[in-house]
């Protein structure tokens, strides 16, 4: 039995990834987020629910993260850590001056992801075979958005983090990569679309339709679609897994954005 850690697992992309990975034999999930209740709801919904752990954790609290991972409940000696999906994040805008959310967004999205990966590194390194550190960046690492300097900087910074850690860790068999999703139908996206609707004096559905119209694929992704990519990247993990292992894909960003940015 091996462990996969998912942050931001109580909702949206993280919960979809948990549901998908829980279908595999030999995988025990650690579900992290600040609010315990949604994590427990996800845990209860998973196959082999009793195997998995739900942990209230702020990813920007380095001491708490390091301490929990070394503890008895984590039990990473018995259940080696083979992958971390550092997916927790917050969205929204920021503006210079009083009440600027710059520090909060950078602290959670960029520093929190750094802390998650660094705290997991010793355990990934000691696990046998190829292991994975995957982060959730964004299509907003690919272009700028007015009023969202912190979010765009945090998600762009994650690509630098991934490239540097791929240089450091790949020789030890740790594949370090990023997902860059475009719109995904989660609470975060719904809040952004709602804010745009209010700014324009139109309905939520009209605002969503506007966003979809400018996408080459004409629709936004679902969390389950993003989970399929994580499933693919982690395809070597799990007991009796006969899928090909992903052993030479590292330092990369996977763009899943309905065609909104083409690299
Ligand atoms: N939806 C999109 O269109 C989209 C597009 C590109 C990238 N993304 C990225 O995808 C990731 C997942 O977002 P989502 O769309 O699935 O939205 P979501 O449903 O709002 O999920 C974000 C999750 O992160 C957790 N979280 C936030 N701050 C945290 C912290 N300090 N410590 C631990 N957990 C924390 C939240 O739980 P708690 O509040 O309980 O902590 C929540 O479960 C984020 O990094 C986001 O930036 C989303």
Q: Which helices and strands appear, and what pairs or packs with what?
A:
Elements: E1 2-7, H1 12-21, E2 27-33, H2 36-45, E3 53-56, H3 62-69, E4 81-86, H4 102-126, E5 131-136, H5 149-169, E6 174-181, H6 187-200, H7 204-213, H8 223-233, E7 253-256
Parallel strand pairs: 1-2, 1-4, 2-3, 4-5, 5-6, 6-7
Helix pairs in contact: 1-8, 3-4, 4-5, 6-7
The structure holds NADP nicotinamide-adenine-dinucleotide phosphate.
NADP nicotinamide-adenine-dinucleotide phosphate binds next to helix 1, strand 2, helix 4 and helix 6.
Order of helices and strands: EHEHEHEHEHEHHHE
Mean pLDDT: 96
Radius of gyration: 18 Å
CATH class equals Alpha Beta
Low-confidence stretches: none
User: Into which percent range does the helicity of residues fall?
Assistant: 40-55%
Record the strand order, biggest sheet.
3-2-1-4-5-6-7
Overall 3D geometry? globular
Instruction: Kindly identify the CATH topology.
Output: Rossmann fold
Main sheet properties: 7 strands, parallel
CATH architecture: 3-Layer(aba) Sandwich
Question: Could you name the key traits of this structure?
Answer:
binds NADP nicotinamide-adenine-dinucleotide phosphate; 8 helices; 263 residues; 7-stranded parallel sheet; Rossmann fold; alpha/beta; single chain
């Amino acid at each position: 039995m091996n462990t996969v850690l998912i942050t931001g697992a109580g909702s949206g992309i993280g919960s979809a990834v948990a549901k998908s990975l829980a279908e595999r034999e030999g995988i025990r999930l650690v579900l992290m987020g600040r609010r315990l209740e949604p994590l427990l709801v996800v845990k209860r919904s998973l196959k082999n629910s009793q195997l998995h752990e739900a942990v209230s954790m702020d990813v920007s609290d380095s001491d708490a993260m390091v301490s929990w991972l070394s503890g008895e409940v984590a039990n990473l000696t018995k259940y080696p850590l083979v992958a971390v999906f550092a997916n927790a994040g917050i969205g929204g805008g920021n503006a210079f001056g009083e009440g600027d959310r710059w520090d909060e967004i950078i602290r959670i999205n960029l520093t929190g992801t750094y802390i998650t990966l660094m705290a997991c590194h010793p355990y990934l390194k000691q696990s046998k075979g190829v292991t994975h550190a995957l982060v959730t960046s964004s299509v907003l690492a690919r272009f700028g958005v007015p009023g969202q300097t912190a979010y765009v900087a945090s998600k762009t910074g994650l690509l630098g983090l991934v490239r540097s850690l791929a240089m450091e860790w790949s020789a030890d068999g740790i594949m370090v990569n990023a997902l860059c999703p475009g719109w995904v139908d989660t609470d975060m996206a719904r809040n952004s679309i709602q804010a745009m609707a209010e700014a324009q004096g139109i309905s939520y559905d009209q605002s969503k339709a506007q966003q979809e119209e400018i996408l080459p694929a004409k629709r936004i992704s679902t969390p389950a679609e993003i989970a399929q990519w994580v499933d693919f990247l982690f395809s070597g993990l799990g007991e009796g897994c006969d899928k090909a292992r992903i052993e030479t894909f590292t330092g990369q960003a996977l763009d899943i954005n309905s065609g909104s940015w083409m690299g």
